[in-house]
C-alpha cells in the first residue's frame, strides 16, 4: 500500500473549521483597521493594499458560495465580483467576512460534489472539471492563508502587530505543536 493510501485526511468538517478559523482571524484583523491603513498603497507601482488582498480573498469565497447556490453547481473563480467597496472600507469587508462564515458553516452538509469551471483563453472553450467541496475548501484554506501572510508582511511595514499564527497554514501550526512537544535533543538537524 502506498504512503498516500495509508494517510488519513481530515474530514470535510475539519477543512471547514480551518476555513472558518482563517476567516475569523481575517475578520478581526480587518475590523480593527483604520480606512487609511486599509487603503495605503504598497509596492513600486502602488498596486498592493491591504484592502485589495482582503477583497481578493472575499471574491474567492463568494465564487464558491455562488457556485454552491447556482443550478449546476459550477464554481468559477475567474468570474469574481471584484467589489471595490470591499477594498476601500474595512468595516464593510469585516461584515462580508462574517456573512461568509455564517453561510459557509450552513452550507457544509448540502453539497457533497461540485464542478469547477475554468476558462482558458487559448481558445474559446471552457473546461469544467469534477471536484468536491472538500477539495475546494482545501484550496481556499491555502489561498486565504497565502494572502493573509502577504497581509501580515504589509501590516508589519506600517507598524501593525499581528498574532503569531496569523497567515500561518494549519499544517504549519500542527508542525509547530509537534515540534514543541519533542525534546530538542530528539529533533533531527
Automatic annotation (TrEMBL):
Lineage: superkingdom: Bacteria
> Any idea what this protein is called?
DinB family protein
Species of origin = Halomonas flagellata
Matching entries from Gene3D superfamilies are given as: dinb family like domain
One Pfam family hit: DinB_2
Instruction: Fetch the InterPro entries from UniProt.
Output: DinB-like, DinB/YfiT-like
Q: Domain DinB-like, which positions? A: 24-150
